[in-house]
Amino acid sequence: MHSDRISHEDIQEERFSGRQGSRFLEPGPVVLVSSAYMGERDIMTMGWHMVMMDEPSLVGCFIWDQNYSHELVRRSKECVVNVPEVTIAEAVVGIGNHHGPEPDKFEEFGLTAVAATKVGAPLIAECYANFECKLVDTSLTKKYSLFVFEVVKAHVATVAEVSDDDSLRGMGLFMIAGEDDE
Ligand SMILES: Cc1cc2nc3c(=O)[nH]c(=O)nc-3n(C[C@H](O)[C@H](O)[C@H](O)COP(=O)(O)O)c2cc1C
Fold first, then answer.
1. Spacing, Cα 144 to ligand 1 middle (Å)
2. Which residues in the chain show pLDDT less than 50?
3. pLDDT tens per residue, range 124-158
4. 61 close to ligand 1 (CB < 6 Angstrom)
5. What topology is assigned to 28-156 in CATH?
């Protein structure tokens, strides 16, 4: 069904490049992935992730093989997926534009590492949700840099009441996208 505003004729039929096309499919929470292995730790920004199952809770994550995080996750077989608030948006972009391990991104971007309970990777205290994850499937890692994790523990800030303009998603709730931000 087409909306009143956009008719099929308005849609250009040209072949979109992957980069252009992903702009339409990738919106979702941009998250921070924290990882640790043998005394090293790191954080990366991640937009390319998807829910793959809810019982057990599986999440697919694209973690490029040139990222230092890829190495830490591959070796430790664990990570934490942290959902940031808009208040740390600048740090989220900065983290996504710097490769670890030096300088330490927790220190560089003023974030607080908190010990997780089921994995060695730290939680990021400034994030309103943290999902401790264990790697359960690497069959597509070599080819697509795709890691499949099981969420083994969730920490989610409690919200007193869901009002009309809350942007919570899932459980039958949807979010209407807002203005573009750079
Ligand atoms: C908004 C945003 C989203 C990103 N999404 C991803 C992603 O899904 N997967 C990925 O491998 N890199 C992604 N990146 C790039 C990594 O965060 C970036 O390469 C980072 O420097 C990796 O850090 P590391 O080398 O310390 O692991 C994203 C960056 C930004 C700014």
1. 15
2. 1, 160-168
3. 999 999 999 999 999 999 999 999 999 999 998 87
4. no
5. Pnp Oxidase; Chain A (2.30.110)
